[in-house]
Specification:
Length: about 140
C-alpha cells in the first residue's frame, strides 16, 4: 500500500518524561488522527538525524528545548494508515527532563492541547504510532 505521495515517509516521535514521571501528549487536530493523543513529533527533513528532528519538532510544537545528549532512540514502528493511504516509519525517542518545563501550544492548527499524563493512566484514544509504541515499550518514571 502506498501513501498519496507514492512513498514511505519517516516520522519522529518524542516521548518526553517530566521529573514527576509524567509523559507529554497532545490531542491532534486536522484530518490525520484528529482527536487522538500522540507524542510531539513530525516529519524528518532531508539531511536530518533523528535527534535533530526530535529537538526541532518538539521546539516548534511545544516550546520545550530538548538536550540531544539526553535523547534515547528506542525503536521504530511501521504505521500504515489505510483511511488516508499514508505510510510512515516512525522513530520513537525517549527523553527525561531534568527540570519542569513550561509547555506552549505553538501549532494550534495541528494540536488542540498538550497535557501531562501519569504513565499508568494514559488516554485510550491514541494515535496509531503511539498505540504501537506503548504496546511494546514501558515508559519508566
Amino acid at each position: 500500500m502506498e501513501n498519496s505521495a507514492g512513498n514511505v515517509r519517516v516520522g519522529v516521535a518524542s516521548w518526553i518524561i517530566n521529573p514527576q514521571g509524567q509523559v507529554l501528549l497532545g490531542r491532534r487536530t486536522g484530518a490525520h488522527g484528529a482527536g487522538l493523543w500522540g507524542a510531539p513529533g513530525g516529519h524528518m527533513e532531508f539531511g536530518e538525524e533523528p535527534f535533530q528532528t526530535a529537538v526541532r519538532e518538539t521546539m516548534e510544537e511545544t516550546g520545550i528545548v530538548l538536550d540531544p545528549s539526553n535523547i534515547q532512540i528506542t525503536f521504530f514502528t511501521n504505521d500504515i494508515f489505510s483511511d488516508t493511504k499514508k505510510h510512515y516509519i516512525t522513530i520513537h525517542c525517549v527523553t527525561h527532563l531534568r527540570d519542569n518545563a513550561t509547555v506552549e501550544l505553538r501549532e494550534p492548527d495541528k494540536c488542540a492541547e498538550w497535557r501531562w499524563f501519569d504513565t499508568d493512566h494514559l488516554p485510550s484514544e491514541l494515535f496509531l504510532p503511539a498505540q504501537k509504541f506503548l504496546a511494546r515499550y514501558k515508559l519508566r518514571k
